[in-house]
Amino acid sequence: MTAPQYPAKPRPGDLVAVLSPSSGLPGLLPLPYELGLRRLRDDFGLKPVEYPATRRMGSSPEDRAADIHAAFSDPEITAVITSIGGDDQITVLPHLDRDLVRAHPKPFFGYSDNTNLLLFLRELGMVSYHGGSVMAEFGRPGAMHRLTADSLRAALFTSGAYELTAPHTSRDVDRPWEEPRTFESEPEMEPAEGWTWFQADRVVEGAGWGGNLEILSWLLMADREVRPSASYRGDVLFLETSEDMPAAREVFWILRNMGERGLLEQFPAVLVGRAKSWSFEKRLGGEEKARFRREQREAVLRALRQYAPDAMVVFDVDFGHTDPQMVIPVGGRIRVDGPARRIFVTY
C-alpha cells in the first residue's frame, strides 16, 4: 500500500466542519457542545460550520453520509472535526462515495466509533487524526487540559514530528454533562501511572494503524476497511478501549482473533492507551480501577506473547478515552524509541 498523504492543514480564520457521523448527542447535551464550539472559535481561531445531522439524534446513515460528502466537497472547509462518537457508524460506510472523498482530502479528527472513518480515510490514502472531539476534548469542563490543547493545536496547524508526553495526573471519573455545575470547574485528577515498556530494546518507526479495539473488532467481523494482514507489515499498532470497559477476557478474545488472522505478527511495536476504568454504569473504586487496568494489560500481553512475541509494547499511553488526550496520526509516522523511552508522532 502506498503511504497515506497528509492533507493540507487549516489556518486560524478558516472554516472547519463539525459533524456527527455517529451520534447526534449535541442536540441532547448542548452544554459541552456549545463550550467546545466556543473554544474552537475563541482559542483556536477557527470558524465551525454545522451540518443538518450534527445536532439531530436518530439521523439515518444516508443523512450522515450526505453531511460527510458536503463537508469534504466544500472547497472552503479546511478540516472536519467530529462532535462525539457513538455505536453505529459502520452503517454509514456503505453510503460513502469513495471517489468524492478521495478527491477532496482534508484533515479529519475523531476517535471511538470514528475509528470507522479514520480507517476508511487511511484506505483512501489520507492521514487522519485519532483524537479531538468537540464535546469531550474541546468541551472539557473548566478548561482544556494543557497537554490535550498542545497536541490538538500541533495536529491542526503544524507539520512534522511531535513528542508525546506522559502526564503526572489523569482523569477517569466523569461528571454529568446535563448539569451546568459540571462546567464550573475542572475535573478532579488522579496521580497517573507512567508508561510501561516491554521489550524496549530497539527503535521502531512505521505508519500508525488501529484505534478503538471494540470498533476494530466490528470492522473485522464485517470485513470492512481492513486489508490483507501482510499489508500492515512494519506499521505501528495502537489500541485503546472505551467507557464500555470490555472485560479482560473479551480484550484477549478480540486480540486472539486478530492474531489468528495474522494481523498481530505484522506490527513490531504496539501502543496501548490508558484504559478507561470508570463509567456511570461501572463506578469502580480506586483498587477496582487498578485491578481492571492490570488485568487488561495482562490480557494484551498474553495475546501478544502468543502471536507477536517479538513486539515492543508500551502501555498507558494517553490517547483515546482518557484525559489528557494526545492525538495519534492514522497512517502518519510514529517513532517508538525503546532505549530512550520516547514516542514521536508526525502530524
UniProtKB/TrEMBL annotation:
Alphabetical list of Pfam families matching this protein: Peptidase_S66, Peptidase_S66C
Protein keywords: Carboxypeptidase, Hydrolase, Protease
Keyword Protease: yes
SUPFAM superfamilies: Class I glutamine amidotransferase-like (SSF52317), LD-carboxypeptidase A C-terminal domain-like (SSF141986)
Domain LD-carboxypeptidase C-terminal span(s) in chain numbering: 205-336
GO molecular function: carboxypeptidase activity
PANTHER family: LD-CARBOXYPEPTIDASE C-TERMINAL DOMAIN-CONTAINING PROTEIN (PTHR30237:SF4), MURAMOYLTETRAPEPTIDE CARBOXYPEPTIDASE (PTHR30237)
Protein name: Muramoyltetrapeptide carboxypeptidase LdcA involved in peptidoglycan recycling
